[in-house]
Specification:
With about 725 residues, the protein is α/β, with parallel strands linked by helices. It contains 20 helices and 34 strands. Strand 32 and strand 33 form a beta hairpin. About 40% of the residues are buried.
Length: about 725
């Protein structure tokens, strides 16, 4: 390839939000400004104009210089949206995850800055009385009533624009006047300082973890904080954070999507004495932009956020903490597929700062890194409140009398617990009334037209819903196949449990927690508050109930059914089952009262289940690790998928077979094509080819070579395809 050099003007490598695996070369808008990497720009692209980000400045191009277009303009007054640190991280991401650079870069920007019109917002300011203003304020208002009312608001210290807006609708005019008189000065807003609350004296295990982490605050260091639920992991984060904040650092705490509750944020606010900046995809675009700006300016000392907060520009970032590191929501499953856990570790390494991965149930990847001493391993095995660990009871379901999915023995335990005025949590990871409806005459069942899945019967809304593509249908009265009046539900969902338990315990309040019952914002917290009053009640819910919530009066947890995972084709199913079981069990007996967990299963003899129950998660994970090693599965090998889908199955197979044929030789092996676990979804047929290697570098070398060829396969144009590095689902 011929490279064209430019000695006169810089050539700007620009990332554009297009699904192409390349950057685009442009020349500066004019000869006066010197653009910088990390800056947003507006560029001509075909017949359109669009925003881009300069990621690199070079002196050469593959195109002749007179073919290059000039940039159109520089928004943001020349301010940078990325530091060189974040650009380097993004660069690593698109190379590692084999994704289009522009999509990677733009996914790291707040939504408003992805649009041409968006701009970096000014920093929030506050207003304060000057000495002259204090004097004036003591005097009678005279004709300056409106202005004096503004000054009054500042009597006890600085006021924000929101405070002033509350005074009158013409506050802006009055403000301009008092500023002109120099009665009021304007300064960057300080986050309100509260008195930090005291923390408990740490237990030995906690203290050792804090000491060790704090002894290594300079430089990259990865810590696994492996502590059972209630062992005080959050307390460890808090004490480490105090240290980081005291030395002037910024901190980033990443939590799973459903772990980010007001309770959690309250706890940090109360203990640290200031308001953490919170960001997640449920906020408005304006709020997310404000959070981004606060992080970038350094005003935000602590940011708590979900997955995407990982890319926030924070120039003083001195620690990253990932809570519930095993949680599946840390993996982005479409578009730019990345693991925020792995990228967090990468970011910490680049910054040379520590990272803490906290969990009660480490992922096998992290577990193996701790075993190999790549990570420091801190175990917290005792509950900090002094509560004992819950007792397990396995109920063999063979030949049991069942009622709506719950065995007679479990019903008896529920009745006993409620009789003692305590709370019971019934866990079932399936919402709706029944997972399928079928005809007892001919065997017809309600399948989704667009997916390989049954439609879930939602009885309260009288509808069948597909949980994979959101298709909806009415529940047929007669069988659409044979016309018989024999339609029934099979199996149970939370809606059915709620109904059955409501009938069985009519005098006990029953609260259902799932995505159908907790739709509205704040609804979860309202229900959670009711549980916290401690009044005897029944909680029925999905994994929404499994995480992070402290319900002190729950003393019995019933796990209705996790059997599917025991014999699943997905090699990670057992690992996930173990994690979920421990999380749910962790809800039992968190306070002074001892807790019990009932597990209903048809397979009480299952070897992994027995290890988990008899010896705990660490022994369980250790066994799974051995199995994975024997089978050469991750984390003992490295995988990537070439995923493809299309309406026509033939198109997918043609592409994947051709792709497989042109896989370059080397250490990595290629297998397939295989149908995805759910072969048809939303009307599209989905297959994949698996690439596996014994070393990460071999995998990546061959993937890179392969991608160059794949892009040019004619059959690639008839399908959608993507590479998924370190896949989590198949
Ligand atoms: P985890 O995050 O591991 O589930 P938390 O940090 O939420 O645990 O702690 C569980 C409960 O124990 C909380 O109510 C917390 O205030 C309390 N706690 C934590 N550490 C201590 C301690 N050293 N002494 C007394 N109580 C503690
Ligand atoms: Zn029928
Ligand atoms: Zn569907």
């Amino acid at each position: 390839m011929v490279m064209h050099r430019s000695s006169k003007q810089p050539i700007l490598k620009v990332a554009l939000a297009v699904p192409l695996r390349r950057l685009f070369d442009y020349l500066p808008a004019d000869n006066d400004t010197v653009p910088q990497a990390g800056q947003r720009v507006i560029v001509p692209f075909g017949r359109r104009t669009m925003p881009g980000v300069i990621v690199e400045i070079s002196d050469q191009s593959e195109l002749p210089l007179d073919k290059l277009s000039r940039l159109i303009e520089y928004p943001d007054d020349g301010q940078l949206v990325f530091t060189s640190e974040s650009l380097a991280l993004l660069h690593w991401c698109w190379r590692y995850y084999k994704h289009a650079p522009g999509e990677v870069v733009f996914s790291a920007l707040p939504p408003l800055l992805r649009k041409p019109g968006g701009a970096i917002p000014p920093l929030p300011v506050q207003y304060r009385l000057t000495p002259g203003g204090e004097v004036r304020q003591q005097q009678p208002p005279g004709r300056l009533k409106a202005q004096m009312r503004l000054l009054d608001v500042m009597t006890n210290g600085a006021a924000t624009e929101a405070d002033l807006r509350a005074v009158s609708s013409s506050w802006k005019k009055s403000l301009a006047k008092v500023m002109e008189q120099q009665w009021v000065s304007c300064e960057p807003q300080q986050s309100a300082k509260l008195d930090p609350g005291p923390g408990p004296a740490l237990m030995d295990e906690q203290q050792r973890a804090v000491n060790d982490i704090c002894a290594n605050l300079q430089g990259f260091h990865c810590h696994l904080l492996d502590g059972i639920t209630g062992s005080g992991k959050t307390e460890v984060y808090l004490q480490v954070l105090e240290k980081i904040l005291a030395q002037g650092g910024q901190a980033l705490l990443l939590v799973p999507e459903i772990g980010l509750t007001p309770q959690l944020v309250n706890r940090f606010r109360k203990r640290l004495g200031f308001e953490p900046v919170v960001t997640h995809s449920g906020l408005s675009e304006g709020q997310r932009l404000q959070a981004w700006a606060a992080a970038r300016s350094g005003l935000a000392r602590l940011v708590i956020g979900t997955r995407s907060a990982l890319f926030l520009p924070m120039s003083e970032l001195q620690i990253i903490i990932l809570d519930e590191e095993h949680d599946a929501s840390f993996k982005q499953q479409d578009g730019f597929r990345y693991s925020s856990r792995d990228v967090a570790v990468k970011r910490a390494a680049g910054l040379e700062v520590p990272v803490i991965l906290g969990t009660a149930t480490p992922s096998l990847e992290t577990f193996n890194n701790a075993l190999n001493k790549r990570y420091s391993w801190h175990r917290l095995r005792r509950r900090a409140t002094g509560a004992s660990e819950p007792r397990w009871r396995v109920l063999d379901l063979i030949q049991q009398t069942m009622n709506g999915g719950i065995s007679a023995k479990a019903m008896q335990s529920i009745a006993d617990t409620l009789g003692r005025d305590e709370q019971v949590l019934v866990f079932l990871n399936r919402r709706g009334y029944a997972p399928v409806i079928l005809c007892h005459e001919c065997g017809w069942h309600g399948a989704c037209q667009r997916c390989d899945a049954n439609m879930t019967w939602h009885r309260s809304s009288g509808r069948l819903l597909c949980h994979h593509c959101d298709s909806a249908a009415r529940v047929p009265v007669m069988c659409p196949e044979c016309g018989a009046d024999a339609i029934q539900g099979a199996g149970e969902g939370t809606e059915q449990l709620e109904q059955m338990l409501g009938k069985a315990f009519p005098d006990t309040p029953l609260l259902r927690f799932d995505r159908d019952s907790v739709r509205k914002k704040g609804e979860f917290d309202r229900l959670a508050e009711q549980v916290k009053t401690g009044e005897s009640c029944l909680l029925v819910g999905t994994q929404m109930l499994a995480k992070g919530h402290h319900f002190p009066k729950v003393t019995l947890v019933v796990i209705v059914n996790l059997d599917q995972a025991l014999y699943s084709a997905d090699f990670r199913a057992l690992e996930r089952m173990g994690q979920l079981m421990m999380q749910v069990a962790g809800r039992a007996g968190r306070d002074q009262l001892p807790g019990e967990v009932i597990l209903q299963t048809h397979y009480p003899q299952h070897a992994s289940l027995q290890t988990l129950l008899a010896s705990g998660y660490e022994a369980f994970a250790d066994e799974l690790c051995t199995d994975r090693q024997t089978a050469c599965l991750p984390p003992f090998s490295y995988q990537a998928l070439l995923r493809s889908d299309a309406i026509q199955k033939d198109d997918v197979l043609t592409f994947l077979n051709q792709a497989k044929q042109c896989f370059p030789g080397g250490e990595a092996q290629v297998y397939g094509p295989f149908p995805a676990m759910m072969e048809r979804r939303s009307g599209r047929t989905r297959w994949y080819v698996l690439v596996q290697a014994g070393s990460r570098s071999a995998l990546h070398r061959q993937l890179d070579d392969w991608l160059l060829v794949l892009q040019n396969l004619p059959s690639a144009r008839k399908v959608r395809w993507a590479v998924d590095v370190d896949p989590q689902d198949y």
